[in-house]
Amino acid sequence: MRRAEVAVGSALLAALFGLIFWAAGGRWPGVISALVLLALGALTAWFLRRRVGAWRYQERNEDLLVARGVLVQRLSVVPYGRMQFVEVTAGPVERLFQLSTVKLHTAAAASDARIPGLERAEAARLRDRLTELGESMAAGM
Amino acid sequence: MTDAPLQPAPPNEDWCRLHPLTPIARIGRLVPAFVLLLLISTVHSKAENGTAETDYLIAFTLLSAVYGYIHWMVTRWRFEGDTLRIETGLIRKDSRRLPLARIQAVDIVRPFLARLLGVSELRIRLAGSGGTDGKLAYLSEAQAAELRLVLLAGHVDAATAASSNTGLPMASVDTARLLASVFLSLVTMIVVGTVSALIVLDQFEPKTAAAAAAFLAVYLLSAAGVIWRRLSGQYAFIAVEAPEGVRIQRGLLQTISETVPYGRIQAVRQVEPLLWRPFGWCRLEVDVAGATGRNQRGEGTSVVRKALLPVGSQQDSWHLLARLLGGPDPERTAPPGRARLKAPLSFHFLSAGHDAAHAVCVTGRINRATTWVPLEKSQSIRRVQGPLQRPLGLATVHVDVAGKRARAEFRDRSIDEADQLVAELTALSRAARSGHGDAAPAAGRDAAPSGWYPDPAGRHEQRYWHEGRWTEHVANGGRRSADAPTPSP
Q1: ipTM higher than 0.90?
Q2: A23 in contact with B at a CB cutoff of 8 Å?
Q3: Which one of A63, A82, A89 makes the best mutation probe of the B interface by having the most chain B beta carbons within 10 Å?
Q4: H/E element holding B96?
Q5: Does this model's pTM top 0.90?
Q6: Percent of chain B at pLDDT above 70?
């Protein structure tokens, strides 16, 4: 999803800057700036790909595991009983690709369990399952 | 209607009014602002005639008096079965129903003027994160105390609640120590340093000194305000053991009596600043959930940090900790030596450990902070490995509890240990949760098996722990003797 965003964005930027430089300083500066921007876009896309690839989650019997990060690797264990609420969001680009983000909120501000880029059906299933499990295991403060 | 006599206290179901002196006591809140305004106006009107400002001031006072009187007239409260109903407001009506069963704590606050008038304010905190809390300002002192007992009778036995008014004192802070501790704090050091630097500068370069003083005046004043608040807020601090929690009384001009319920404690922190360490002093703070305060959007429950002991000796601190945490202190271990490369400064004190009920960790170099987190309250467990930690084979494990600031960090453990910790802590906190529900303040107490543990009072090497309490059996270097566990200070 992000990759698509970046690809479209960098291509547009490259075209725009290319045209501007073409108009301002002739053909070569325009071509070079466009190429540099395209290369930057490709690099970002590669980083994002690794980042998305490192994003895993696992539903266990009593808790949800979310692992993410390449440079800084994080692993969160969130017990279902501690969930305050589940949030499903979908931005405009996400909607374009039929994707959504599931976010779990607990009473602690630091424990962020966010799973982006889920297929819509999977997101709905996860949301329902989490809510159901959260209700059955809810624990007081 | 205006001179309605005070109703005898509940449980009758008639409407009751606040104390007739309420409007005057309410004006007392504005006194500091008045004094400030008066100061400003006199400074401004040095040249001209300053009558206009004083006229405004008098008019303003009258206006707020009238408002206070109207407010008093329209505010009333009564018991309706199991709920306390408070109605207030002339233009915007506000009616609150506080179910007695959900009342978490009742605080009594007495600002300076209210103390002179012999009235006090009652603050009622509810359980859960609804965010509604009741306030009755002001009631006569006797009535406030009585009402507090009635309100708390719902979940605490009325008899024990009554007796607990003179409960066991757990810790107190004498004035000399408070003064010394505030003096030895960073803020005071900065203020004293700056002022003395200004005085020295004044000897040589009066002009520069004057300019610098004018520039720094605002900061110095606000710093002085901070120091003053610390002093007056924690003056005559007494912590008393009550059945529902620790009851705290403190304050110089405004006295506050509040309760920290055992079951709501999310984390306990013992802080030992550098300057206090030679004296063996420390500060105890607790994070309490569901205290008065607004809910942040999406953050679940509001958590407030409270000083349980503004300054005390290790002994006092241990005494309180033993009561709060119950069981013996979990054994702590230091991270592997290679962590020194990643955290050269803070490595010195870095250590952490856990048992079946609590996780404990020590962090910080200048302010050594020891944090205890009941695993029962853990919200999530995280393992984080930064780019510096990876080549060293280190990782940090966090145990998060409700709130923004509180957490226990097992910082810079070896990666295998971290993995093991995550699994262990997850299992342990699951057991702690399912074992006791939400109202189990004694979670840690029963969890620890009987045996010899380090003496919490610090007087002996080891002390025997049996069936949820410390016994008088102690041991030093293998030799046994007897000494009562916790003599009252």
Answers
A1: no
A2: no
A3: A82
A4: strand B94-99
A5: no
A6: 75
